[in-house]
Amino acid sequence: MSGPSTYQPTNPALQWIEKRLPIIGLVHSSFVAYPTPRNLNYWWTFGGILSFMLGVQIVTGVILAMHYTPHVDMAFNSVESIVRDVNYGWLLRYLHSNGASMFFIAVYIHMLRGLYYGSYKAPREILWILGVIIYLLMMATGFMGYVLPWGQMSFWGATVITNLFSAIPYVGESIVTLLWGGYSVGNPTLNRFFSLHYLLPFVIAGVVVLHVWALHVAGQNNPAGVEPKTEKDTVPFTPYATIKDGFGMVCFMIFYAWFVFYIPNYLGDPDNYIMANPGVTPAHIVPEWYYLPFYAILRSIPSKLGGVIAMFSAIIVLAFLPWLDTAKTKSSKYRPLAKQFFWMFVVVAVLLGWLGGKPAEGIYIIAGRVLTFCYFAYFLIVLPILSRIETPRAIPNSIADDVLAKYGKKAVSAIVALVLAGGLMAGGTQKAEAADEHGGPTPPSLSWSFWGPVGKFDRGALQRGYKVYKEVCSTCHSMNLLHFRNLADEGGPGFTAAQAQAVASEIKVQDGPNDAGDMFERPGRLADPFPKPFPNENAARAANGGAYPPDLSLMAKARNYDRGFPQFVFDFFTQFQEKGPNYIDALLQGYVDPAPKDFALPQGAYYNKYFPGHAIKMPKPISDDQVTYDDGTPQKVENYAKDVATFLMWTAEPHLEARKRLGLQVMVFLIIFAFLMYFTKKKVWANAH
Amino acid sequence: MTTTSSAEHTRRDFLFVATGAVAAVGAAAAVWPLISQMNPDASTIAAGAPIEVDLAPIAEGQDIKVFWRGKPIYIMNRTKKQIDEARAVPVASLPDPQTDQARVKEGHDQWLVVIGICTHLGCIPIAHEGNYDGFFCPCHGSQYDSSGRIRQGPAPLNLPIPPYAFVSDSKIKIG
How many CA atoms lie within 13 A of A620 on its CB side? Predict the structure, then answer.
C-alpha cells in the first residue's frame, strides 16, 4: 500500500489483469515485499492477531445472525436455540462471545505495546489516532453485541450505558429517547442495536484498512525505536513476518480455545442467563470486563456529567498522546524513568479494572478516585514532564546493531511470558463481584464427574436427577428450553428414542384448531417442550404465595457466588466452572429450621444458609425417601440434591460432552501445529541471522 | 543467505510441507462447522416427524391439502372415472413413464397422495383443473393427470409421492 508497485507477474493472464487492475502488485508490495524491521519481537504479532480476531468475529457473527431473532420476546430463546439445536451452534456462539474478550485482550496488549515503544510518535501520529478510533468503534460494537442475547445484564447494561447520554445538559433526555426509540429500552432499541452491531464491524474493517495503509507508509516502529536506514535493517514481510505472525496467532488460538472449550462462561456474567426483566435490576450491575477500568473512572467522579466526561476523556486522551509525550527517544527500553512509569500505569489500569467490578462504596470509592487521578496524571503530568527532564540511555545506531547486541535471546520465553500474562490479565480483570454481606457461607465445592477437560455426565445421576425434577421440582418450576426429544440426545440422560417418546405421550398437549375450529388434546410428541406447571406468571405467583418459581433450564449457569481473589485466577487454570451445581446442591440441603434466633424471618419465608439474604420463599422441597430410586442409590437428600444439580447442569449445557470432546481434539491439533510453526519459523529466520 | 547442504534442504522442505499440510487440514476442519450449521437444526428435524391424517372426512371426488415438512401434500379421493382414465393411458407414451398402480398403495386404489409441488420450478398446481382430470400448474402451464403424472407442459417429472403408509383403512401416516 505504499506507492506504485514494481512487481511484474510472469504469467500472461496475470499480466493482463495487472495492466488493468494492479491488485496483485498491491498485495505483493503490501504483504510480500514490504520491508519490516528485523528486530520486531512477539509483541508485534498482535496486529496480525487482531486482524484474525476481526475475521473470526465477522464470520461467526454473520452466521449467528442467520439464526438469531432480534425481538424482545424471542431474542433470549433464539440464542438458546442456537446453542441447543443448531449444528455446532454452541461452538459458534462461544467462539463469538469469547472472541469479543480475546479481541479486547489482544487490543489492550497491542495498545500497551504502542505505549511502551513510543509507536505513536512522529511520523505515526495518524496511524495511532486511527487505532484509537478503531478502539472506540470496538467498544461500541462490543456493547451493542452484549445487548443482543437479551439477558438481565444485556438489558440493564443497555439501560445504564444509554443513560450516560442523559448527563448532557439540556438535550440529554431527548438524545436518550432518540437512542431508545421509545420511553425505555425496548424492542426498537434491540432492533437498532442488532442492525448497528452488524454494521460496525465492517466500519472497523474499513478503518483497519486505513490503519494498515498508514502503517505501510510510515513503516513499522520497532523495539529499538530507530528507523530503518539500510536494507540490512529490514527483512521482507513474507516469509519472515508472515511466519512469525502465524506462530504468534497459533499460540493465541490455544489461549482462545482454552476459553471456548473449557471455560466458556468464565468471562461472562451469570445474570445474563436470566431473561431480561424490566422490573428487576440485578444486585450488581457490571459491564463486561473490558470496560471495567472506564466504568471505575465513571463512578469515582461524584457528579453525573463529570463522571461521563471523565470516562470519555480517559479514552480521548489517548489520541493526544503524540503531543503529550514529546521525548525524542521512542522506545521505553532506553528511557529508565518512562519504563517504570509505564509499568505503574499498567498496574493502575488493572486495578481500576478490578475496582470497576466492586460495589461503589467505602474504601473502593477512595481508591477509585486515587487511581483515576493516577490514570490521568500519567498522560497529562508524567509524560509531558518526563519528556523534558529525562536523560535517555544511548540508543543503538541502527536496527542491525540492535539485533547483533541481543541475538540469541530465547523466543520461547517470550511466548511463555505472553501466555502467562494473558492468563493473568484475564483472571485479574475478571469482575470479582462483591460478596453479599447477607450471602452467608460459600457453598462447598463438590467433585463433579463433568469437571475438567475430559469430564462427562454420570448417566445414572442424570436419570435419577430427571426423576427428582419430574416428581418434585416440576410441580412448581418450568423447564421451558427442554423438549422431550432432548432426553434421547447424545450426551444426555441416555434415554432411547422410544423411552423418550413414552415419557412424552404421558402428557396431553393442546393442539388445533381442527376442521371444526375446535382446540383438542393429543398425546405429547418428541418435538413438544416440557409441560409448564402454571399457564402464566400470575397463576404461578398466586399458587406460591406471591413468589415466582424461576425457570430451571439455565439455573446451573445463572447462579453464582464470589470466589474471591486469588481463587478466581486459579479457576482459570483448573477449569473450575461448577459454581452453579455447587450452589444448587448446597441450597437444597441448606434449610435450617427453626431459623437462628437473631434472624427476623419474614412471613411465608424459610431460612436457608446459602440463599442470598437467607429468606427463601420456597419451602424445603425434598426430604429423605421422597423419591424412589430404582438403582439402589440411598434415598437421601444429599443424593437427591447432587443428582438434580447434575441434571440441571445438563439442561443448562446440553452439549457439554461434545464441547469437551471437540476441545481435546482442537487442543491436540493446535499444540502440534504450534510446534511445527515454531520450527518452521526458526528455519525461515535462520537465513536472516 | 547461507549455503546449505542438500540433506539439510530435504529436511527443511519436509518441515515446510508438513506445516503447510497441517495448516490446510486445520483450515478445512474449521470450515466444516461453518457449513454444517446451515443444515436443518434439531428442532426443525424434530418438527419434521411423521404426521397422521384421517381420511374419513374426504368424500369421493374431493381432496385435501395437508402440510408435512413445510410441503403441501395433496390427498385425493379419486372417482372411478379418474382411476379408469389414469389406467387407460399407455404408459410408454408418458414423458415420465410410471403405472398408476405404482403410484398408489395396493387395495387403496382410490387414494392418491402426492407432494403438490410442480416439478418444473416449484409452484403449487391446482387440483381438479387442466385437461387430464388432475392438476394444473398456473405458473407455466404444466398439466398432471389424475395419477399426478406429467402429461403436458415444461415440467419434466411426475408429482413425487411422499413416504406414507396406511395405518388403518381410513388413516395414513406420512413420513
Answer: 16
Question: Which residue in chain A has the smallest CA separation from B11?
Answer: A683
B23 neighbourhood in chain A, CB within 8 Å? 673
Is residue A416 in some structural domain? no
Give A595-625 pLDDT, tens digit per residue.
898 899 998 899 999 999 899 999 999 999 9
Q: What's the mean pLDDT in A16-45?
A: 93
- Quick check: A130 and A214 in contact, CB under 8 A? yes
For residue A637, the domain's CATH number is 1.10.760.10
Contact B42 A85 (CB under 8 A): yes
Measured in angstroms, the CA of B104 and the nearest CA of chain A are apart by 26
Report the distance separating Cα A40 and Cα A220, nearest Å.
Answer: 9
- Residues of chain A with pLDDT > 70: what percent? 94
- Tell whether A1 is covered by a domain: yes
Same domain, A521 and A444: no
Q: Which residue has the cell 514532564?
A: A385
The answer on A619 and A650 residing in a single domain is yes
SS3 state of residue A133 = helix
In this prediction, residue A563 carries a pLDDT of 81
Summarize pLDDT for A137-165 with one digit per residue, the tens.
999 999 999 999 999 999 999 999 999 99
Residue A307 covered by a domain: no
What ipTM does this complex have? 0.87
Same domain (yes/no): A553, A629: yes
Contact A527 B43 (CB under 8 A): yes
Report whether A134 contacts A255 (CB < 8 A): no
At residue A407, the pLDDT reads: 54
pLDDT digits (tens, 9 = 90+) for A191-249: 999 999 999 999 999 999 999 999 999 999 999 999 999 988 999 999 999 999 999 99
- Residues A75-92: tens digit of each pLDDT: 999 999 999 999 999 999
Alpha helices in A430-523 (DSSP H): 459-471, 497-505
Name the residue among A84, A485, A679 with its Cβ closest to that of B15. Answer: A679
Residues A508-517: pLDDT tens digits? 999 888 878 9
What residues have CB less than 8 Å from A108, skipping those under 6 apart? Answer: A290, A425
**Cell numbers for A152:** 438481565
A416-443: average pLDDT: 56
Reply yes or no on whether B140 is catalytic. Answer: yes
In terms of CA atoms, which chain B residue is nearest residue A253? B26
Q: What pLDDT does residue A431 have? A: 43
Angstrom distance (rounded) from CA A37 to CA A81: 49
Architecture of domain B46-174: 3-layer Sandwich (2.102)
A627 in the same domain as A505: no
Residue that has been written with the C-alpha cell 453525573 in this structure: A304
Per-residue DSSP letter, A444: P
Q: Are B134 and B144 in contact (CB under 8 A)?
A: yes
Place of cell 441447543: A84
Lowest-confidence segment of A401-415, A444-458, A667-681, B132-146 by average pLDDT:
A401-415
Same domain flag for A457 and A603: yes
A593 has pLDDT over 90: no
> CB A366: neighbour CB atoms within 10 A?
10
Low-confidence ranges of chain B (pLDDT < 70): 1-8
Please, where are the H alpha helices in A68-186?
Answer: 75-85, 89-116, 125-147, 152-163, 172-180
Cβ within 8 Å, pair B46-A63:
no
**Same domain membership, residue A499 and residue A624:** no
Q: How far apart are CA A560 and CA A586, in angstroms?
A: 12
A523 plus A499 within the same structural domain = yes
Query: Are the C-beta atoms of A155 and A144 separated by less than 8 Å?
Result: no
**Structural domain boundaries in chain B:** 1-39, 46-174
Same domain, A540 and A623: yes
Alpha-carbon distance of B139 to B122, in angstroms, equals 9
Domain with A508, as residue range(s), is 483-528
Q: A395: how many CB neighbours lie within 10 A of its CB? A: 18
